[in-house]
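Give me the fold.
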Amino acid sequence: MRTLIFRPLALLAFLFLAWCAVHAWLHHSVQPELKQAHAQDVVMFGDSHAGDVRLPGFSRFAFPALDLVSTWMWMEAFERAGGPESQVKAVVLTMWPIKFSPVAERRLTGRIQDDSWGQSALGKSSHVLGVRHLMEPELPWRLRWRMWLNTFQMRSSIHAKGWVCQDKSIAPDYKYTAGKLVREENWFDQATVSRWAFNQIVALANRNSWELVMVEHPLHPSFLDEVNPEAMDQYEAAMQSAADHPGITYLNMARTPLPHTGFRDHNHLTCEGSEVVSDRLYPLLQELGVNF
């Protein structure tokens, strides 16, 4: 009987200690990157759209389809790594409506997805996962469990530098077709976890001295025609409400007109499209004291 009791407890203790060891190693490995970022004028966070923002030489903490919870965790880790000597004047965050979409919210339930998103994205956030995140009641328990479990993947950091654009564009008659939920449901109102994470990012920006610049890329007109207008209105209102806070700027370029040669798909840009973003972003960053 004693063996039946103590063997499972011993196994659980071993797993916990193994997680602590792996987590400590991952946490330690990313600290130089976070501290190095504080020696720069500007740092960028976000998803695959960060690759369309021309900021070569500056640190970028981004990964395709990175959710807002993971983004908040990386930004929080960046905040903790700073200090009085930090030189950061601006933090650029890529945003777009689909961060609040049904697929994004479904992923944040922690349930297994057909696209293996959890294995890729959640494994990339293990470097900045803390016990406080595992205890956060606003996050679904399945999500917290998968965050804990994916630590054992020991994935590489999402930190990168440099910038390479692509020239291959969509066809002149390109048309995007959204899923039924994106077209018919008020997905922004239903995105409780994503909205909570976004509010954490806003609160984080409010307590720091740097400017948070939320960059929204130009989106293809066929995408804008497809998304639920009520959800889109609420999304844009939330972004503008955040920008009402001192120290937060919202570069709303979703409806900025671009020829088809500026798009790689409905939400990613070619070199030509990236130049349009730079034309809006660079003057703002220069006003904040960023040196290119």
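Residues 2-287 form a domain with the Rossmann fold fold (CATH 3.40.50.1110).
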